[in-house]
Specification:
This protein has one domain: 2-Layer Sandwich (Alpha-D-Glucose-1,6-Bisphosphate, Chain A, domain 4). The chain has 157 residues and is an alpha+beta fold. The protein is globular and about 45 Å long. It is 29% helix and 38% strand.
Length: 157
């Protein structure tokens, strides 16, 4: 399969969507659960909304990079869509909070990665076997980190 590359990861929680959404909104607390982050902040300050940016700075020495995420959609408490545009790639992450009949909510995280330009597309194709599992792991780790933060904010963790 060529690019764009898309992976979906699901993390289950016993919290309702509104409680999970609080973790999405608590951007400044993301570094407490996402080990590679030194700083995360919402710009402009205020409610999480389409048009905002989430600015993250990586810890020195981590494998992460500094990123600015554009918030494309913030539909509390069900859907958050973030985009990153870089010189070499475009990335889109969709978080959907889906409540089931019982006491379980799934965080369904779908990440799409696409190369920019022919040279980068060829590099991505050559490295696809290595990129796909890293993308899946990163997507799962972020979703789980947000679930963990929600548990802590709700007083369960």
């Amino acid at each position: 399969m060529a690019f764009p590359l898309t992976v979906t990861q699901t993390v289950a929680s016993t919290l309702p969507p509104a409680a999970l959404w609080r973790a999405f909104e608590a951007v400044e607390q993301w570094p407490t659960v996402i080990a590679a982050l030194a700083v995360a902040r919402l710009e402009p300050p205020g409610p999480l909304a389409a048009g905002s940016r989430i600015v993250t700075r990586a810890l020195p020495g981590s494998n992460a990079a500094d990123r600015d995420f554009r918030v494309l959609a913030a539909e509390a408490p069900h859907r958050l869509v973030l985009a990153v545009e870089d010189a070499d790639f475009r990335a889109l992450t969709r978080y959907e909070l889906v409540r089931h009949g019982g006491d379980e909510t799934d965080i369904v995280a779908t990440a799409t990665l696409d190369a920019v330009g022919l040279a980068q597309s060829l590099r991505f194709l050559a490295w696809r076997a290595r990129i796909a599992p890293v993308l899946a792991a990163n997507t799962r780790e972020r979703a789980q980190a947000l679930a963990d933060l929600a548990e802590r904010l709700a007083g369960h963790g």
